[in-house]
Amino acid sequence: MDNQQALPMAADNVSIDPTIDPTTQRKHAAMMERLSNLHQSRVSNKTNPKDPSFESTQSFLSAFTNSKQAIESSLAEIQQIPDSNPNQDLKPDLERISLSISDLEKLVAENSYFLPPYEVRSSLKTISDLKQTLDSVTSKVKPRKKFSFKNKPAKKPETATVLAAAATKNESEHQSSYKVTDAPGFRSKENEVLVKEFKGSEVGEYVLTDLTNCEVRLKGCLRTLFINRLQNCKIYVGPVLGSILIEEVEGCVFVMASHQIRIHHAKRSDFYLRCRSRPIIEQSDGVRFAPYRLSYDGIENDLKESNLFDDTGSWANVDDFQWLRAVQSPNWSILPENERIETVKF
């Protein structure tokens, strides 16, 4: 009796059309149970993301492979359902598979800080392939109305969503998808010292764009930062609670702390960073990295409130998304200690 009750519960109360033959019902229920268990395991892992038993490449790859195979199996099975019942509404099933792929994507993001760069790139490629397969399966089983893959996480800062989506795009495509038109910031300045102090979390996002030969000092915490088209500038930034996106910079020095840092089209620039996840570079060369070197009154409290007080060493583990080989990318390097700047104080 217990076994008979367990299956509908594992299927998350999904009703099955009684007109479907018993064999198809069993396959459908088994697929729903597998997807439900997969999702619940992801949720359970999130409640204890720092479990040391999972912080190894081998254990991650085992969990990732099991999830991948479950999703692939569900995609294969769902294609067989229209053969036995062409009128069945498959949208809920497709949405569950979409959710499972989203969980797998989150799994990679949450554990990327200890994974080798090659495994991160390989995992992201696998997720991209699963999304394409889902779209392909959807177009076959629902030809009249295509169900496109949509990742619908809970509320996130806009920049984090943009960066997560960009990670699974064609990395050779360069485009700025970040809308910054109305955001506050410094624009179109030359040969100036630009200073801004933030109090609390009053600023959601901030912009530095079209600056030449400028020194920028941003004191305090802000939520997100977008940097675009800078030449020969020095940028000193307090803790950023969310993400930093940098595009088209040359001959610059950046001193900044953030949870996520992504760099596009950078040339001959130095980055002094403190970050929770690996910095990502794309289509960049001659970029060098070193630990964060900034000091001002109250920075210790700002770093603690932003969960950036501890140096995790992620600044030295850079992912180059244009370099797919297992050997060191020639596009970035560690900045030699004798060439590093002194701690900047203001």
TrEMBL record:
It is found in: Cytoplasm. GO terms for molecular function: tubulin binding. Residues 1-27 are annotated as: Disordered. InterPro entries: C-CAP_CF_C-like (IPR017901), CAP/MinC_C (IPR016098), CARP_motif (IPR006599), TBCC (IPR027684), TBCC_N (IPR031925), TBCC_N_sf (IPR038397), Tubulin-bd_cofactor_C_dom (IPR012945). GO terms for biological process: post-chaperonin tubulin folding pathway; tubulin complex assembly. GO terms for cellular component: cytoplasm. Residues 153-323 form the C-CAP/cofactor C-like domain. Keywords: Acetylation, Chaperone, Cytoplasm. It comes from the Eukaryota. The keyword Cytoplasm applies. Belongs to the TBCC family. Supercomplex made of cofactors A to E. Cofactors A and D function by capturing and stabilizing tubulin in a quasi-native conformation. Cofactor E binds to the cofactor D-tubulin complex; interaction with cofactor C then causes the release of tubulin polypeptides that are committed to the native state. This is C-CAP/cofactor C-like domain-containing protein. It comes from Centaurea solstitialis.
